[in-house]
Structure formats: C-alpha cells, structure tokens
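Duplicate of #3305? Posting structure anyway:
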C-alpha cells in the first residue's frame, strides 16, 4: 500500500485533497492509516503540508449508547446542514475496532442517503492495531477532511467503549443522545458523561414516544440542575428530537451556533483547541514510546524478562518500570 503503487506523489495527494477530490482524500486517509513505516513517513509529510488549511471547520462530537440513534441522527442532521450549504464529513471513533478487526457496524448500509450526497464524506472507523492509535488516526482523518473543504465534521462514537473522552478531546461541541425510558444506568447518565456534554438530545421523540420523551427531558433537566456551572456559564440545553421523522434539528443547530459564538467571543474556543493539540501531542508521544518498546527487540525482551520477574514475585511493579526506563534511556 505504498505511494508508488497508487502512482500518486505526495504533491498529487496534497493538491487532490486541497481541491476536495473525495477519491484522493480516501487515498490520503488510507495512507495515514497504513502501518508501514515508509507510509507513516509520507503521511507525516502530507499532514504537515496541509496543516495551514486545517482548523477551519466546526467539529461536533456525537455520543450515546448503541441503538440510541446516532447514525440516524447524523444522517438527518447531515442532510439538514447540507441544505443550509455546508459540506459534511462523518468520522468515527471505535475503541473496540482493534479487537474486532473493524467496526461492528463497519461496512454498514447506514446513512444511505447521506453517503450518496456529493457534499458529504463518510469514513468508517480506522482499524489500526495499535494501542490508543485509533483516536489519533481519527484526528488525522479530521485534518485531511478539513483541508478538503468539509466545514462541519461530525465525529461519532461507535461500539461500547471508553470513547467519550476521546471524542470530547476532538470536538468543539459534544452532543449526547439519550432516549426515553432506557434507564439511567444503561445510558450512562453518570455525572462524568453528562458533564462532558454541551447539549443533550432526547431522540426518538415521535409517535407514541412524544409524551415519555418530554418527561425524560424534565428528569434530565432536574439532574443537570445539581451539576456545577459549565466553564462558559453555558447552561446545557436539552431538546427532544426525532431523527427518523426529522424534528427540532434547527434547534440543535441554533444552540451549537450560539455556543460557538459565545466561546469564540470569549476566546475559550481557541484556547480549547490549543489544549486539545497539546493533549494529542502528549498522547501521540506516549503511544509512540510504547510502540518503540514493543518493536525494539532488545527492549521488548527486557520487558518480557521484567514481566516474568513480576509474575514470579521477584520484582515489584515500580522497580520493574524503573529498570525498563533506565535500560531504555541510559
Ligand atoms: P446507533 O447505534 O446509535 O447508531 O443507532 P441507529 O441510528 O442505528 O438506530 C437504532 C434504531 O433506532 C434503528 O432501528 C433506527 O431506525 C431507530 N431510530 C433512530 N432514530 C430514531 C427516531 O428518531 N425515531 C424512531 N422512532 N426510531 C429511531
């Protein structure tokens, strides 16, 4: 899967991406997702070369338990935004894809209509086999999509996992989808998750479900009341919506727009992005360091030796870490 096989030079990839060519964009993303060291080197060059064309989009995270309606919502909301003149990229984070060799819903026929729209680009989850590398890949994919002119990036969490913080670290605004009557525990209406959300949507508020959805909305509002104020004094809005029979999507957009205006005016928007960059640098660095340990034969056999000593009870965890670090850096 090297560059030469596809006969595209780095310059061609760059100009294809910048011109919004979706085929070239897909090739560029495949290059970035490749594990081959030579591809990784080219990928770094490519990302560096497009960096000045990134950062201009709105990055919106979408999370919630499987079945809550995330992809149905993204399809409806994506089409709604395209109507308004936007170009939409849909990316996903799937922490389980390392185990499953692909997203559970990977080659889905989800988001049918959106996927056929020329103003939309949908990319399934990266399936990198490396520790923590998956969200890193999603981030690179996001930059490439921005360079290709997609001005709203919807980042969906897929599968059951700990991806909420990863999507929070990637997005400017996080939408949490809920449904009526699914039980608090099941939906993760834990402090943590609700505190991460910038807006809560009670989805499937249609047909016989409307009354129940409105009751659920009130319960969530009461729950939120006991939470500390958001850093921007932003009161997290809760809206009942339907994704299947699109309803209240304009309200969702109105709140996102409001939030972005407030946070751009008080600089939080930019500060948050800078912090996210640092966060990603640190995470990427620790991933690479770990990768180095696993790939370097001397280090890796030293690591095995220490693990054996820990298993036998001959070495403490703390001294094992110290020993390996000394071995690596001295
Ligand atoms: P995801 O796993 O969170 O991505 O959920 P899906 O988008 O795949 O939706 C799960 C199921 O809920 C599907 O059968 C959808 O048709 C249904 N669904 C999603 N949104 C709505 C909605 O607004 N109203 C109703 N009635 N059903 C919905």
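Output from current build:
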């Amino acid at each position: 899967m090297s560059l030469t096989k596809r006969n595209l030079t780095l310059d061609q990839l760059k100009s294809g991406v910048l011109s919004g060519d979706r085929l070239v964009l897909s090739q560029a993303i495949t290059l970035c997702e490749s594990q081959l060291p030579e591809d990784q080197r080219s990928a770094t060059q490519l990302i560096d070369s497009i960096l000045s064309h990134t950062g201009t989009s709105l990055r919106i995270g979408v999370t919630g338990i499987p079945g809550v309606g995330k992809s149905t919502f993204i399809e409806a909301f994506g089409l709604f935004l395209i109507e308004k003149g936007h170009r939409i990229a849909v990316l996903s984070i799937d922490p389980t894809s390392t185990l499953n060799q692909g997203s559970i819903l990977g080659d889905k026929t989800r988001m049918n209509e959106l996927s056929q729209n020329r103003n939309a680009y949908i990319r399934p989850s990266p399936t990198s086999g490396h520790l923590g590398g998956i969200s890193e890949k999603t981030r690179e994919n996001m930059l490439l999509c921005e360079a290709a002119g997609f001005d709203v990036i919807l980042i969906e969490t897929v599968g059951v996992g700990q991806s909420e913080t990863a999507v929070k670290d990637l997005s400017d605004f996080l939408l949490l989808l809920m449904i009526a009557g699914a039980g608090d525990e099941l939906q993760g209406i834990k402090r943590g998750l609700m505190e991460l959300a910038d807006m809560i949507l009670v989805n499937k508020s249609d047909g016989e479900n409307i009354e129940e959805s409105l009751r659920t909305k009130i319960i969530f509002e009461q729950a939120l009341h006991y939470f500390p104020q958001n850093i921007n004094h932003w009161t997290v809005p809760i809206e009942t919506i339907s994704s299947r029979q699109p309803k209240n999507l304009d309200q969702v957009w109105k709140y996102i727009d409001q939030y972005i205006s407030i946070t751009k005016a008080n600089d939080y928007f930019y500060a948050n992005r800078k912090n996210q960059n640092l966060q990603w640098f640190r995470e990427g660095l620790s991933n690479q360091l770990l990768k180095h340990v696993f790939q370097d034969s001397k280090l890796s056999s030293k690591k095995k030796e220490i693990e054996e000593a820990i298993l036998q009870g001959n070495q403490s965890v703390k001294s094992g870490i110290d020993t390996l670090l000394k071995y690596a850096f001295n």
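Confirmed duplicate; merging threads. The chain has three domains: 1-53, 54-266, 277-329. Residues 64, 66-72, 203-204, 206, 242-244 surround guanosine-5'-diphosphate (CB under 6 Å).
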